[in-house]
Amino acid sequence: MASRALAYCVRSVARSSARLNHGNVLTRSACAPVVSNQRLLSVISCSQRTRWTELVRISGPSVHLCRHYGDLPPLTLESIKERVMYVLKLYDKISPEKLQTSSHFMKDLGLDSLDQVEIIMAMEDEFGFEIPDAEAEKLMTPAEIVQYIADKKDVYE
Amino acid sequence: MAAVYLTHHQKVLRLYKKSLRHIESWCIFRDKYRFYACLLRARFDENKHEKDMVKATIMLKAGEEEFWANQHPQPYLFPDSPGGTSYERYECYKVPEWCLDHWHPSEKAMYPDYFAKREQWKKLRVQSWDRE
């Protein structure tokens, strides 16, 4: 988009310079939609008749065309693990000292199946997508949760 | 799950999760939701140790009816879940992975690590396919 605006400005400068030069072939070819901005600008700055060349002084090769889309930062296995452990530490029925990635909710931490449902719901809220019940009842350790989320979100496969 | 029929345990857990989500839809402020969630948890906990299955199924049925009566008309659904806004939105753009085999070698050379592992992955799949 920036390149189109730039090309439009260049073309308007070229058109005004063409009116003054009365059919300068170079500036007419500059009106063609070619995305070689550096060449166009050097052509226009060569013509000394127009006053506008001093205004159109953009440094040549720094016009990199790249698009920015709005999205969340990409997930990594590390970041998923960090977030999962953070949420688990905030849960009041788990003591943060005993918590590790391989600690089983029922056997090691002594939690209930209702607690496990609540933990899975907290994970759903954290990551923003739903974990269906059939798969949620099988996730019993933080490592399994991290693995499941990585599978769903395509993180390093 | 292996069997099509749900066990009583699974049904109770699903009712719990559904009712928590609908309470969350009703009580939008987090502290109010937390309060009612704790009340619901206490109700589930006091009947947790019921050994009589007949009574337990009667209580479950009563719970399901109460859920149906108190459900939210437009519960909060996650975008990717069925009924959500973004459900199956990008399905039409997902290309099946056998198309990767039809890439031109110059394109495949752009991702050498992946295509090196891909051969091993396909061999693994051939071996483990019979086991499954």
TrEMBL record, chain A:
Membrane spanning residue stretches: none
Keyword field contains Mitochondrion: yes
Compartments where found: Mitochondrion
Gene3D superfamilies: ACP-like
Species the sequence originates in: Cirrhinus molitorella (mud carp)
Keywords, sorted A to Z: Electron transport, Fatty acid biosynthesis, Fatty acid metabolism, Lipid biosynthesis, Lipid metabolism, Mitochondrion, Phosphopantetheine, Phosphoprotein, Transit peptide, Transport
Domain of life: Eukaryota
Protein task: Carrier of the growing fatty acid chain in fatty acid biosynthesis.
Family in the record: Belongs to the acyl carrier protein (ACP) family.
Matching Pfam families: PP-binding (PF00550)
HAMAP family recorded: Acyl_carrier
InterPro entries in the record: ACP, ACP-like_sf, PP-bd_ACP, Ppantetheine_attach_site
Domain Carrier: 78-153
Descriptive protein name: Acyl carrier protein
TrEMBL record, chain B:
Main localisation: mitochondrion
Complex 1 LYR protein domain sequence ranges: 10-68
CDD domains in the cross-refs: Complex1_LYR_NDUFB9_LYRM3
Keywords: Acetylation, Electron transport, Membrane, Mitochondrion, Mitochondrion inner membrane, Phosphoprotein, Respiratory chain, Transport
Localization in the cell: Mitochondrion inner membrane
Keyword Nucleotide-binding among UniProt keywords: no
InterPro entries referenced in this protein's UniProt entry, alphabetically: Complex1_LYR_dom, Complex1_LYR_NDUFB9_LYRM3, NDUFB9
Topology in the lipid bilayer: Peripheral membrane protein
Family named by the database record: Belongs to the complex I LYR family.
Function: Accessory subunit of the mitochondrial membrane respiratory chain NADH dehydrogenase (Complex I), that is believed to be not involved in catalysis. Complex I functions in the transfer of electrons from NADH to the respiratory chain. The immediate electron acceptor for the enzyme is believed to be ubiquinone.
Subunit details: Mammalian complex I is composed of 45 different subunits.
Full protein name: NADH dehydrogenase [ubiquinone] 1 beta subcomplex subunit 9
Protein's organism: Cirrhinus molitorella
